[in-house]
Specification:
173 residues; alpha+beta; four-stranded mixed sheet; globular
Length: 173
Protein backbone atom coordinates (compact mmCIF):
# COMPACT_ATOMS: atom_id res chain seq x y z
CA UNK A 1 0.00 0.00 0.00
CA UNK A 2 1.10 3.57 -0.56
CA UNK A 3 1.33 6.28 2.08
CA UNK A 4 -1.50 8.08 0.31
CA UNK A 5 -3.80 5.04 0.32
CA UNK A 6 -3.09 4.41 4.02
CA UNK A 7 -3.84 8.05 4.82
CA UNK A 8 -7.09 7.86 2.83
CA UNK A 9 -8.09 4.68 4.69
CA UNK A 10 -7.55 6.41 8.05
CA UNK A 11 -9.73 9.33 6.92
CA UNK A 12 -12.42 6.94 5.68
CA UNK A 13 -12.53 5.10 8.98
CA UNK A 14 -12.51 8.31 11.03
CA UNK A 15 -15.39 9.65 8.98
CA UNK A 16 -17.36 6.39 9.10
CA UNK A 17 -17.03 5.91 12.87
CA UNK A 18 -16.55 9.53 13.95
CA UNK A 19 -13.59 8.57 16.13
CA UNK A 20 -9.86 9.14 16.38
CA UNK A 21 -9.35 7.70 19.85
CA UNK A 22 -8.18 4.11 19.31
CA UNK A 23 -10.13 2.66 22.27
CA UNK A 24 -13.43 4.23 21.19
CA UNK A 25 -12.68 3.44 17.54
CA UNK A 26 -12.10 -0.23 18.31
CA UNK A 27 -15.39 -0.33 20.21
CA UNK A 28 -17.22 1.33 17.29
CA UNK A 29 -15.62 -1.17 14.90
CA UNK A 30 -16.78 -4.04 17.15
CA UNK A 31 -13.21 -5.12 17.85
CA UNK A 32 -12.85 -6.79 21.22
CA UNK A 33 -9.98 -5.20 23.16
CA UNK A 34 -8.51 -6.95 26.17
CA UNK A 35 -5.77 -5.59 28.42
CA UNK A 36 -3.57 -8.36 29.83
CA UNK A 37 -0.34 -8.15 31.83
CA UNK A 38 2.48 -9.53 29.68
CA UNK A 39 5.52 -8.07 31.40
CA UNK A 40 7.98 -5.30 30.65
CA UNK A 41 11.07 -7.35 29.94
CA UNK A 42 13.05 -7.16 26.73
CA UNK A 43 11.18 -9.05 24.02
CA UNK A 44 7.85 -9.17 25.83
CA UNK A 45 4.72 -9.18 23.71
CA UNK A 46 3.31 -5.65 23.37
CA UNK A 47 0.05 -6.61 21.71
CA UNK A 48 -1.49 -8.69 18.97
CA UNK A 49 -4.49 -8.92 16.66
CA UNK A 50 -6.44 -12.09 15.92
CA UNK A 51 -9.53 -12.66 13.81
CA UNK A 52 -11.45 -15.89 14.26
CA UNK A 53 -14.82 -16.56 12.64
CA UNK A 54 -15.22 -12.87 11.76
CA UNK A 55 -14.67 -11.82 15.37
CA UNK A 56 -11.81 -9.36 15.67
CA UNK A 57 -9.79 -9.38 18.87
CA UNK A 58 -6.86 -7.24 20.03
CA UNK A 59 -4.89 -7.94 23.18
CA UNK A 60 -2.72 -5.15 24.62
CA UNK A 61 -0.01 -5.52 27.25
CA UNK A 62 -1.44 -3.73 30.31
CA UNK A 63 2.02 -3.52 31.90
CA UNK A 64 2.97 -0.83 29.37
CA UNK A 65 2.31 2.88 30.02
CA UNK A 66 -1.13 4.04 28.80
CA UNK A 67 0.47 6.30 26.18
CA UNK A 68 2.18 3.28 24.63
CA UNK A 69 -0.97 1.16 24.93
CA UNK A 70 -2.76 3.73 22.72
CA UNK A 71 0.00 3.50 20.10
CA UNK A 72 -0.02 -0.31 20.17
CA UNK A 73 -3.83 -0.37 19.86
CA UNK A 74 -3.77 2.04 16.90
CA UNK A 75 -1.10 -0.15 15.29
CA UNK A 76 -3.15 -3.32 15.83
CA UNK A 77 -6.29 -1.64 14.47
CA UNK A 78 -4.21 -0.96 11.37
CA UNK A 79 -3.52 -4.68 11.00
CA UNK A 80 -7.25 -5.37 11.33
CA UNK A 81 -7.99 -2.90 8.54
CA UNK A 82 -5.00 -3.23 6.21
CA UNK A 83 -3.87 -6.83 6.67
CA UNK A 84 -7.03 -8.85 7.06
CA UNK A 85 -5.41 -12.21 6.27
CA UNK A 86 -2.85 -12.21 9.08
CA UNK A 87 -2.36 -12.42 12.79
CA UNK A 88 0.21 -9.86 13.88
CA UNK A 89 2.07 -9.73 17.16
CA UNK A 90 4.79 -7.53 18.57
CA UNK A 91 7.24 -10.15 19.67
CA UNK A 92 10.89 -10.81 19.08
CA UNK A 93 10.52 -13.49 16.47
CA UNK A 94 9.45 -12.95 12.89
CA UNK A 95 6.13 -14.50 11.98
CA UNK A 96 5.94 -13.68 8.28
CA UNK A 97 8.28 -12.91 5.41
CA UNK A 98 6.18 -9.81 4.77
CA UNK A 99 6.34 -8.57 8.38
CA UNK A 100 8.57 -5.54 7.77
CA UNK A 101 6.26 -4.05 5.14
CA UNK A 102 3.17 -4.76 7.20
CA UNK A 103 4.70 -3.28 10.35
CA UNK A 104 5.77 -0.19 8.38
CA UNK A 105 2.25 0.25 7.01
CA UNK A 106 0.67 -0.27 10.45
CA UNK A 107 2.98 2.41 11.89
CA UNK A 108 1.99 4.87 9.16
CA UNK A 109 -1.68 4.14 9.88
CA UNK A 110 -1.19 4.57 13.66
CA UNK A 111 0.68 7.85 13.17
CA UNK A 112 -2.05 9.19 10.89
CA UNK A 113 -4.80 8.05 13.27
CA UNK A 114 -3.23 9.43 16.46
CA UNK A 115 -1.69 12.66 15.13
CA UNK A 116 -3.63 15.21 13.12
CA UNK A 117 -1.64 17.45 10.79
CA UNK A 118 -2.84 20.49 12.74
CA UNK A 119 -1.69 19.12 16.10
CA UNK A 120 1.77 18.33 14.73
CA UNK A 121 2.08 21.75 13.09
CA UNK A 122 0.90 23.50 16.26
CA UNK A 123 3.49 21.64 18.34
CA UNK A 124 6.24 22.54 15.86
CA UNK A 125 5.08 26.17 15.56
CA UNK A 126 5.58 26.62 19.30
CA UNK A 127 9.33 26.59 18.56
CA UNK A 128 9.69 23.07 19.84
CA UNK A 129 12.24 20.73 18.44
CA UNK A 130 11.28 17.32 17.10
CA UNK A 131 11.78 15.39 20.36
CA UNK A 132 10.00 18.04 22.42
CA UNK A 133 7.08 17.97 19.99
CA UNK A 134 6.85 14.17 20.32
CA UNK A 135 6.73 14.52 24.09
CA UNK A 136 4.01 17.21 23.93
CA UNK A 137 2.02 15.03 21.51
CA UNK A 138 2.38 11.99 23.85
CA UNK A 139 3.91 9.71 21.24
CA UNK A 140 7.29 8.07 20.80
CA UNK A 141 9.63 10.06 18.57
CA UNK A 142 9.64 7.17 16.12
CA UNK A 143 5.88 7.52 15.59
CA UNK A 144 6.31 11.25 14.94
CA UNK A 145 8.90 10.30 12.31
CA UNK A 146 6.25 8.14 10.61
CA UNK A 147 3.80 11.08 10.76
CA UNK A 148 6.44 13.30 9.13
CA UNK A 149 6.65 10.80 6.26
CA UNK A 150 2.88 11.05 5.74
CA UNK A 151 2.93 14.84 5.95
CA UNK A 152 5.83 15.06 3.46
CA UNK A 153 3.67 13.11 0.97
CA UNK A 154 0.98 15.73 1.50
CA UNK A 155 3.44 18.47 0.54
CA UNK A 156 4.68 19.70 3.93
CA UNK A 157 8.37 20.56 4.12
CA UNK A 158 9.42 18.59 7.18
CA UNK A 159 12.65 16.82 8.04
CA UNK A 160 12.93 14.30 10.81
CA UNK A 161 16.23 13.99 12.68
CA UNK A 162 15.72 10.22 12.94
CA UNK A 163 14.87 7.36 10.61
CA UNK A 164 12.55 4.88 12.30
CA UNK A 165 12.19 1.29 11.27
CA UNK A 166 8.94 -0.63 11.05
CA UNK A 167 9.84 -2.76 14.06
CA UNK A 168 10.53 0.07 16.54
CA UNK A 169 7.56 -0.91 18.73
CA UNK A 170 9.20 -4.26 19.53
CA UNK A 171 11.82 -2.53 21.66
CA UNK A 172 9.73 0.26 23.17
CA UNK A 173 9.04 0.17 26.90
Amino acid sequence: MTIQSISEEVRRIQKKYGESDPFRLAQAMKIIVVLKPMGRYKGCCKGFYVQHRRIKHITINSDLPEVIQRVILAHEIAHSVLHTNITAAFHEFTLFDDTDRQEYEANLFAAELLLSDDCVLNALNEDQFFFQAAKVLYVPAELLDFKFRVMKRKGYKLESPIVSHGNFLKTIE
